Amino acid sequence: MPPSETAKVLIDGVGELIFDYLIPQGVTVEAGYRVKVPIQHRRVLGTVIRISTDESSSHNLKPILEIISDEPLLTEKLLQLAEWLSAYYCAPLEHVIRTMLPASLRKERSFDKSQKVVELIKLPDEEELLKLEKRARRQHELLMTVSNSGGAVAQRLLGTGVSSPLKALVDKGYVRVADEVVKRDPDAGDSFLPSQALTLNEEQEVALKRILEAAQEQAKPFLLAGVTGSGKTEVYLQAADAVLRTGKTVIILVPEIALTPQTVRRFKSRFDQYNHPVAVLHSDLSAGERHDEWKRLRAGDAVVAIGARSAVFAPLENVGLIVVDEEHETSYKQESSPRYQARDLAVVRAHMEGCPIVLGSATPSLESWHNVQRGKYELIKIDKRADDQSMPRIRIIDMRTEARKAEVKPVIFSEKLREAIRMRLEIKEQTILFLNRRGFSRSALCPSCGHAVQCPHCSLSLTYHRKDDRMVCHLCQYMSIPPKKCPECHDPSILFAGYGTEKVQEITQKLFPKAKVARLDADITRRKGALKEALEDFRKHKTDILIGTQMIAKGLHFPTVTLVGVLNADLSLHTPDFRASERTFQLLTQVAGRSGRGPLEGEVIIQTFTPHAPSIQYARHHDYYGFAEQEMEFRKGFSYPPSYHMIVLLAASKNEKLAQLTLETIHTRLKEKLPDRERFPIILGEVLPAPLEKSHDEFRYQLLLRGANPRVTSQFIKSVLDRNPIPPEVRLTCDVDAYDMG
Ligand code: ADP
Ligand code: ZN
Questions:
Q1: Please, is 674 exposed, middle or buried when counting C-beta atoms within 10 Å of its C-beta (0-12, 13-18, 19+)?
Q2: What is the pLDDT of residues 679-692, one digit of tens each?
Q3: Using the 8-state DSSP alphabet, how is residue 130 labeled?
Q4: Is the CB of 363 inside a 6 Å radius of any atom of ligand 1?
Q5: pTM assigned to the model
Q6: Residue 618 in contact with residue 626, Cβ under 8 Å?
Q7: Domain-terminating residue out of 635, 655, 672
Q8: Among 68, 13, 19, 14, which Cα is nearest to 40's?
Q9: Does residue 538 share a domain with residue 569?
Q10: Sheet-wide strand order for 545-548
Q11: Distance CA 640, CA 287 (A)
Q12: Is the beta carbon of 596 within 6 A of some atom in ligand 1?
């Protein structure tokens, strides 16, 4: 008898239950299959993660009950990636698999959308046909329709009242009714004009050449740093095209939904015509659409996957290129378990696939920039806009002066911005107004002098905590009493609050009653399809002024926008986050890059209370490298990322004391077990209330760790967590390479 094979099965729905099962004789199972297995008296679903032929271990094992997928859903490489992710990000493997597979595929029942199809079996002979025509007109008609449509017609197209004639035809053996799987197409109804490759300029040519060379050798990941409008997308398109022609597949990651309709259009229109079908994966798809797109990729019916962060798990084989567009975007980080960073994971996947990877941005993340400086990534630069357009002119408006003049506060529009909008309306050009209203945490900002209350030890803004009525630093625990007036200029009108996009829309409409004003933010786009519509309206110039949050800062391309107004550049600057300056620089540069993308020259007006902040000044001069250099110094000085990896442990519970105590116990254990300081430097912080102290009735405490080596740090934390059970009333999360400090 051949040695029995056993399968390691990861059980659905629990943290990390993995059991061995016997594979029944004659049944083929590979890693990646979905199966049904017994646990005690229940039958549960799970994923086979490994097969072994070790005979000694097969004693007393229960057999797998049923194979529920007709193929392995996860490839060898994806399983390998899953294990890597689980270890690096301290996340249960079950969460990882759950993220990798669309929900529909993890169910037992097939989710394919099917329709009834009437298929021709055979036509009757002449004589019979003539009889039908005379005595059963309806049957004859139906039969002819089916026959004339190439032998198969969707039943619903045959019209109503066909049931009995149809049944008669079935009984006579001329036709049969079958279920046919139809693919849902998320872009049904859109047409894609074929787009031709542009002739690349010199810088683009060099970039393309380097990327294609890398397909031959095992090269480092590329950081493609090209100013906004430099034609990076055209480089991705041509690189992808070349790779597809060699029979390989391509994965393209774009930030969350904002980019998708436009990007998808650009990619589909280029590839479809060469018979390189594209599948799309993003959060605006219905479960059914997602399922179908995934299946097309798995079956090889689509060879290009475009999508937001989860597209890094696209079930493609033979991957020849991975592109991460706008690689600095924080939406690549998933903020629920598993808390992976899709850009970094894409680099790992490319390494496993042995294919080139291109990370592109006008404002690369400091993490990627750090990797260039350490020689881990190769830099490709594009310094000019494609077609030699000039960069938009950026003007900084000092809102302190505006506020002094104004009678009503807060001032939303400076005189210059109001005038610039009025002029655009007159000459029928479009305006984008940007307001980054983000987060719950509020800093104290003086509207007269622009002073923001900062920590004396950290060069970070303090956060106001209403509960204790204190200003707190979230990195070093420094505390102070909230100022009653500005500590600098003694103005008593120090602000803790701000205004949002809705308010701005109202005021804009009042100021310009004839203008068509639209708003685009998370509230608006909750409705499926709303984003696509709003962008489409703007593109067709049905809207004059578009007001929005980050959502409109990303990668959009509107040739008739000539004015971009940033209402309050300080909002992102004064957040209790060491990345505040980087985020501000990126936002301003990206928003500014929306202006002047056509033949018309662009203008950008930035309103700020802190006109001399480095992030604002470097953005104004379109100087990424200058910004990166000084920001890197600051990060190094405080051992912040990217020189160190930041890990946030968060304990949340309805029982406040318990949340705090749990984390303090973990803190003590971590302190006892800290590895050798010389070899593995780890900086352990203190247990503190999180910036968002209470959420959904839960109290939240956090503990920050910074480690030079992320894998050692993750392992260290995991070893401590595994030995110290967490009370069931507390939720403990571990966020490796955290972005959200909250
Ligand atoms: P990026 O992705 O770097 O922001 P895009 O790829 O969106 O830039 O390009 C900006 C604009 O320049 C687009 O309208 C694009 O069609 C155009 N463009 C890109 N490359 C060229 C080229 N080589 N010649 C002419 N126009 C180009
Ligand atoms: Zn501090």
A1: middle
A2: 888 999 999 998 87
A3: H
A4: no
A5: 0.80
A6: yes
A7: 635
A8: 19
A9: yes
A10: 393-398, 603-608, 561-566, 430-434, 545-548, 517-520
A11: 40
A12: no
